[in-house]
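QUALITY CONTROL LOG
STEP: pairwise intake check
CHECKER ROLE: data steward
CRITERIA: each record must contain a sequence immediately followed by its C-alpha cells, with no blank fields

ENTRY 1 OF 2
RESULT FIELD BELOW
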Amino acid sequence: MELRNLRVRVPASTSNLGAGFDCLGLALDLWLEACLAEGDGTTVYGGTLEGITSEEDFLASALGGVVPSGLRLEVQSSIPVSRGLGSSAAARVAGLVLARLAQGLRIDRDAIFHSAQMLEGHPDNAGPAVYGGLVLSAGRPTKLRLHESLGIALALPNQQMSTRAARTMLPTQMSREETIAQASRSAALLLGLTLGDGELIRYGMDDRIAVPHRKLLVTGYDAAVRAGIEAGAFHVTLSGAGSGLVAVAARDSTSDIAQAMAGALGSEGNAAVPITPAVVEDGFVT
C-alpha cells in the first residue's frame, strides 16, 4: 500500500445560516489535513488541534483504530475549534475516509456522509464536508450553488462555545405562528442564496429557533450584528452553534464587514478575529 494515498483534506463549513437550522451548510476554504505516515503509533496534532488528546479527537474515534502496523496518525488543521465552523464534522469525515483508505475500500461519498451525520447527530456540516459547496439535507443531501455575487464574512471571538451546551438552550416547543414564520424564512433563505437576492437573504437569515437563545452566550452579539449590517451585510447570524458570527454580503464588501463585526465584538470586551474565507465547491480530497 502506498503511503501517499493514505491522506485526506476536508474543508470547514458554516451551517444553519439563519433559518436553515440543522439542514443547511456551506463549505469554506479552511482545511483539516490528515494522513497515516510511518511512525511509532503516537498521534501528532498541529495547527488548531495542537494540544488535544486522542480521547478528545473525533477523527481518531471515527477512524476506529484502523491503523496499519508501523503507521501513525498525523493531523494538521486550520479550522478554528468551537467557533461554529464544522471542526468536528471535518474530523469525523477525515477519520471515516482514512479508515476506508487503510482497508483498501472504495471511497463512497454517500456512505461516508451517512456515517458522518450519524456520528454528528445532524447533517448540516457533514454535507459540505463531504460534497463541498452549499448543501441542503432534505431527506438526502442536495448540492445547490451559492450565487456568484455573494461572499462570506466571519468574526471569530476568543470566546468559545460548545455545540452540546448550545443545544441545551433550544426551545422544546414552538407555536403554530412561529413554525409557519420559520418555514417561510427557510424557503426565503434558499432562494436568496441561490438567486443572490439580498432581501430574501435578509429575511431568511432571521432565525427564530436557535439564535434568540444562543446569542446570549456571545458577548457583544447584538452590537456585532448592527455593525455588520451597517457595513453592508444583508444579515448577520451565528455560524452553526457559534461562537463565530457569519455575514452574507456582496463579495466585494466582505472584508469591511468582517472587520466591523470583529471590532464591535472587541469593543464589548470579546476580542475577535475577522476572516473572509472563499467558498469551496469540493468536499474532501484524497
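ENTRY 2 OF 2
RESULT FIELD BELOW
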Amino acid sequence: MSRIVLHQWEISPFCRKARKILQYKLLDYTIQSYNGLLALKVSKLSKAAKLPVLEYEGEWIQDSSDIAEFLERHHPQPPLFPSDPQHQAQALLWEDWADESLYWYEVYFRFMDQHALRLTIPLLCAGRPQFEAWVIGSLAPIIYQQQLRAQGIGRLSRDRVETKFFQHLNRIEVVLSQQPWLAGHALTIADIAVAAQIEEILRTSTLKEQILGYPQLADWLTRMNQ
C-alpha cells in the first residue's frame, strides 16, 4: 500500500493541483475521494473542512500550497520552485493568482451555468448512491452562488465575467509567446497551479473551444500533460 494518500474531492482544482504535483514528482500515491455526502467527513481531516489533505507517513498536510512546499522539501527533484530568485518570485505570484483569483472564474463557470451544472453534479457525486446527487444538486449551487456574490464576481453579468476571463487568457498567451513556461524556462508550481484551474474549467464549461483557440495556451496545456 502506498505511504502517500491524497484525500480529495473529484472536481476540486486544488485537488487536481495536488495530483499534478505528485505526478510531477513521480511519487506513488493512492486517492481517497469524498464525493457526495462523504464530504461531511472532511471536517475530521481538516480544521478548515477543506481538501486536499495529504497523508504522508503519519503526517497530515492541509492546503495545496502547503502540500507543494512539503513535497519539495522531502522530494526536491524535479524542482517545483525555481532556484533563480526572480523566477521564484514570479512562480509564487502566479500560484497565488491562480489560487485566489482564477479560482473564482472556475467556480463561476461551473455553478452559474446550467449546462456546466448538469455535468458537475454527477462528478461531485461519482460513486455515490443516486439520491445524493439530488441532495448535492439542490444545495451546492446555492452555497457556491452565495460565495460568488460575496466575492463580487457573482454580481457581474455573464458577458462581463467572460470578458474579464478572456483578458486574463490573452495575458497568459502573451507570456507563453515569449517563453515556454510561465515563470522561466522550466515547468514550475506556476504552471501546475494555473493549469489546474483552467483544466477544471475545460472539464465542464461550454467555453472549451474558445479557450483552446489560444494556440500558445493549448500547446502549453498539452506539454503540461506529457
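INTAKE CHECK: passed for both entries
DESCRIPTIVE NOTE, ENTRY 2: The mean pLDDT is 95.
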